[in-house]
Amino acid sequence: MSDVDESLNASYEDICESVVNILKEHPRHLSLMHLNTQSMVSSFNEFQVFLSQYPMDVITMSETWLKENPALLEYVSLSGYGAVFRNRDKIRGGGVGAYISNSIKYKRRKDIENLQPNMEQLWFEVPGRNKNSKALIVTGDINIDLLKPNDPLSKKYQSILEIFGLTQHVTKPTCVTQNSKTLIDHIVTNDPHCVAATGIIPAPTISDHDAVFACVNVRVHRFQPRYKWIRLERKFVTEEFLQDSANLPFSIIYGLESPDDMVNALNTLFSECIERHAPLKYERTLGTKPAALSDLLEFIDSLSDGTTPQQSFSLRSVLHCEVLCEIDKLRSDTSTGIDNIPVKFVKLAREHLVGPLQYIINNCIARSAFPEAWKIARISPIPKIDQPLCEADYRPVSILPALSKVFERLVLNQMIAYIEERALLGATISGFRKGHSTTTVLLGIRDALIRASKKGE
């Protein structure tokens, strides 16, 4: 955010030039200004000269001192702008108004104004600029001095802004006299990042208040075009793919020593086969190191409920049917991991993959190792909110290789069986356990309260 230089050494011409340059730097932003005019009629000529220097989209005014007089309203019309006023007829002073550029379509929201009919306020909706925009902008002479942060009224005002997630952007005094300085003219938004520039413009020929202005990005932030790899399956023939996968030289895997080499060979052979039948195309569309398997086994060995003698846990070799069963359980609608092997093709060729995969998994169990290629996840950012603007608005999701999920599920099945058989987890532990949920916990708490109540506890 940038502020206009308001030092005593800055001339009015320098300030004027600075504001104009800021407006030129943000041509696609909504430029707006607010001024306490202290009578539109008496200083309207000066007001026109003042505004002619700054091509604002929206100008809002307080203390217009106008009446519902057609001649007066015609006198204060401004070329190139539509005008809306809310005037006091019975008493002197007050009144609010707004000039909105003819290039902007707007709708007056009297439904909001009628919520507090005795308050001098105007509300507008600017549709069409971006249908998804939820920008809220409030301007006005609030008459609460934010240069006195310890004042009770100022504290209450700041508290209200904080509760509703609003930010006041003006930081310099807006009403300066020989004896005082106050910051009572405010610009408030619901998104602190949408204001690209703000500042103060002296208006001594019109009012003892300075004008406040801002350049606001009311459009929803648009990201660069998104691209992703997709499989071209229009010419995919299942029978040809299965025939090709049946002829893959998976036998070379059995001659390798390292589980990493085995996985790399399996990934290479199978991914090249997929590429021949459903090639990838790049198209436009609108961590912590994992613990070693030996560390996991050591953790399982340390579990005990204090009553059952501790027994050593070890993974056994997996069976052909177990691997096949876990492949069948994989969801076909999940995203593809970094190995670019979709679950759909794994399930299609499961009869040819199950043998080499079983051999690799059993080799890993025997060596207490986990292949490096299966430790690497592809991170996909998922928006937490409707209009994400920065990294903090996303939740990172790790997408693992499909074949690593088979191995992990087989290990998990053996761990769960061991824990359940020996009752290593208490009955009140419900997290990530089959047949348990938050409902289980709530029912347990309810039952405990009922028992305690019956005992008079």
Automatic annotation (TrEMBL):
InterPro entries: Endo/exonu/phosph_ase_sf, Endo/exonuclease/phosphatase. One of its GO terms (molecular function) is catalytic activity. This is Uncharacterized protein. It comes from Paramuricea clavata. Coiled coil: none annotated. SUPFAM superfamilies: DNase I-like. Pfam families: Exo_endo_phos.
